[in-house]
Amino acid sequence: MTITTTTPVSRRIAVALYLVVAAGVFWHQRACLESSRATYETKLKQLDAMQSDARRIEVLRTAPRQATDRQLPHDRLAKEIEEACLRAEIPLKQLASLWPDSPMRLQQSDYKKLATRVSFEDLGLRPLVAFVYHLQAIDASLTIDGIHLSAPKHESPVWNAELTVSYLLYAPRGAAASRTASRGLDLPNQQRGFLSHGPSES
Question: What is the pTM of this model?
Answer without folding.
Answer: 0.55
